[in-house]
Amino acid sequence: MPVITRFAPSPTGLLHLGHAHSALAAWGAARRVGGRFLLRIEDIDGTRCRPEFTAAILEDLAWLGLDWDGDVRVQSVHMPEYRAALARLSARGLLYPCFCTRAEIAREIAAAGQAPHGPDGPLYPGTCRRLAPEIRAARIAAAEPYALRLDMAAALALAPADLSFEEVGEGRLRCDPAQFGDAVLARKEVPASYHLCVTHDDALQGVTLVTRGVDLKPATHLHRLLQVLMGWPEPRYAHHPLLTDASGRRLAKRDGAPSLRALRERGLSPAEVRTLAGFAAP
Ligand code: GLU
């Protein structure tokens, strides 16, 4: 099977060395074996993404010496496709509208004393899952804003009990999607979630090897479940360690990690930046 990888940044800021590491990992994994490398802009969250950062990503990656195959897929122009995927899940009774605000959920969790924590935060206590159909219909008719949540128990009932994913170098790892609880797959401000869009696009674009930071490894448990529910093919996964600074802290924009642009303005060459990003030669 040909290797097809991708780098899928969200344009919420300028790329830093951690992104360069991720991009070079994906690019190298494809190029070493004559495979394809795709670039996808994950800008579905209009509250955080900005077009000028998309332009900067393309420019910085090209400066770094990366080339990609085919057109860049920009998620925000494909909303109807994600809506169609949501409609398919909804038609099978796997989604339900959730009218709770974040504050209401926090109150409910506080009243319950505690809630298990998942990779995306505290697990939703399931309040709106128990709403009667006529109450749901009335609240939707009254134009109350709502999110769409995956009914995890219903979804798990449709998946094999031994659901797993293949991690390169580790073999098959058992999935535990229940750790996400009733995950949000759409909300008013972000009409399709990262989890839905990323699995949709990896399937659509024929990605066979997903390379990304180990911080996203837990998300793979949910992604495998969505793949099974939607009948999408299963890629292999290679989660790479995160690049850290001299003191061992993970590089992040909020901690002042220098952007690729800043390094370039300081006079560093693409080869020097690739070395700093952990890849001596392209
Ligand atoms: N868009 C995601 C991010 O920038 C990465 C998606 C992925 O590689 O699965 O964190």
From TrEMBL:
InterPro entries: aa-tRNA-synth_I_CS (IPR001412), Glu/Gln-tRNA-synth (IPR000924), Glu/Gln-tRNA-synth_Ib_cat-dom (IPR020058), GluQ/Sye (IPR049940), Rossmann-like_a/b/a_fold (IPR014729). It holds the Pfam family tRNA-synt_1c. GO terms for cellular component: cytosol. Residues 3-267 form the Glutamyl/glutaminyl-tRNA synthetase class Ib catalytic domain. GO terms for molecular function: ATP binding; glutamate-tRNA ligase activity. One of its GO terms (biological process) is glutamyl-tRNA aminoacylation. The keyword Cell division does not apply. Gene3D superfamilies: HUPs (3.40.50.620). It comes from the Bacteria. The keyword ATP-binding applies. Keywords: Aminoacyl-tRNA synthetase, ATP-binding, Ligase, Metal-binding, Nucleotide-binding, Protein biosynthesis, Zinc. Belongs to the class-I aminoacyl-tRNA synthetase family. This is Glutamyl-Q tRNA(Asp) synthetase.
